[in-house]
Amino acid sequence: MAVSTGLIEMTEVEAGLYLHFSPPVYYSVSNPHDPAAVRGARARREDFRMWQNELPSADADLRLTLARLRRSTGHGDGYITSAIFAHQRLEELPRLKLLQRRLVHLDLHRLKAIDGVLNKIDASVTAHMAVIDEELTDFLTPTRANQNLPTPGEIRKKLNAIIQTLDTSVSEKDDPLPDPRDHFEVGFEGDRAYITVETDAATGLEIDIRVRKHAAANNMSLVDAYNDLMRGEGNTSVTLNIYRAHDVEDAPGWMSDVGYINPTFTDELAAKATRIRDMDELKDKMVKGYATPEDIKAVIIGFDGGCSEADCSCPGHRTQMEHRVNHADGGPTTAANMAAFCPTHHNVKTDGRMTYIIDPHTREKYLLYEDGTYVISEPRGPLSLKERRWLQTVGQRMHNRRERVRKESQDRRNLEKRAGLSTPPPTEDDPPPF
Ligand SMILES: [Zn+2]
Q1: H or E segment at 3?
Q2: Distance from the CA of 330 to the center of ligand 1, in angstroms?
Q3: Fewest Cβ atoms closer than 10 Å to its Cβ: which of 57, 269, 287, 349?
């Protein structure tokens, strides 16, 4: 028997679950009032069950498993192997697995993104995996009705940020991330050339901003602007903003598009900074004109992180500042009345196809579309409430680590004292005492 809820026929089980739990919080991909989301959730649940049921045992011959799944699913080896690894990874993340079993909000694409990033670290360090499991589960738990689900790219960024804050002293290795390698290469194919450069994130962001600014100023393509700058023509001055919590010790930094950067790199960049601004003091700054000054823009990007449209991946430094209440209608130029939008979604708002309300406390945006639907778009910048809370967690973890290291060294000194050693014996590397 099927039960109708008005929009779509749910199966009896689905309707029963819906009536019993009637979830007050859910991601838009699990919206029980959205027919496409209901069908999508069904497909996701079946896909999740299938892979979980087909996971090979530890002693299974992987080639036989692959051959069988190729026949059963029609997918290629690469797709199947990464799906198996992604599902096996959940065994190392028991909290996330529990959440996923309940909500089934993560599709294979997102599970593969999680597995891909975790390949970087030593999963046998259980203390690391426990922190990752807890903070990733928190990141992927809905707190509002119909909020947008983080994209695979956002999940990757969050995971990288968590990994950067891990206590590496419990690991065998000094650093859970592989050493970065700078790289420059020009490759040719026919009459086309491909230029590849690997450098640090701050330099990469600076090049991106420089090229875009030069292109806009001279009304030329990005490639023409890049070539122009390489030939030493034109000069652009750029501002790189690095955000860092001042009330959290050893806090990671944050940059547009890059996301969080490790504390050591943040220290290096901060040492080169020409100006330091307190974002909290600028939060309520208001100016008379329509144009947004750089400091107010920095606050808005610090809150929103990127384009405010749910699921849009446009980074903060490429967004435009949008007056929620138009300036002409008396809307002030201040962070509370403004949001970052990419040029495309800025047009959607200007055309009246979408309007929005900003929650003044959380900075979440309630986007209301002309067809009557809505979505809650979560802010992704480091000044947003959720990110501030996460940074406090990181600060607490750093504090606990320092306490532990201090206690261990005290214990060692006490032991040495009891053994009658006031100073440690010289090692072979020490110079002779004369
Ligand atoms: Zn956008």
Answers
A1: strand 2-4
A2: 25
A3: 57
Ligand 1 midpoint to CA 345 (Å):
5
Question: 3-state DSSP call for residue 311?
Answer: coil
Q: In this predicted structure, what is the pLDDT of residue 341?
A: 98
Say if residues 25 and 149 touch (Cβ distance below 8 Å): no
**How far apart, in whole angstroms, are the C-alpha atoms of residue 91 and residue 136?**
14
What are the tens digits of pLDDT across the range 356-401? 999 999 999 999 999 999 999 999 999 999 999 999 998 888 888 8
Q: What is the enclosing helix (H) or strand (E) of 218?
A: helix 201-218
27 by DSSP, 3-state: which? strand
Two structure tokens written together for 166: 């891990």
Q: What is the mean pLDDT of the chain?
A: 88
Backbone angles phi, psi at 290, to 5 degrees: -80, -40
**Ligand 1 center to residue 319 CA distance, Å?**
8
Q: Hey, which residues does 260 pair with through a beta bridge?
A: 254
Q: What's the CA-to-centroid distance between 309 and ligand 1, angstroms?
A: 5
Sequence-distant (6+) residues with CB within 8 A of 49 are none
E strand or H helix that includes residue 259: strand 259-261
For the chain, the first-to-last Cα distance in angstroms comes to: 94
Ligand 1 centroid, distance to 344 Cα (angstroms): 6
Tokens of 10: 């749910």
- What is the torsional sign of CA 201, 203, 208, 212? positive
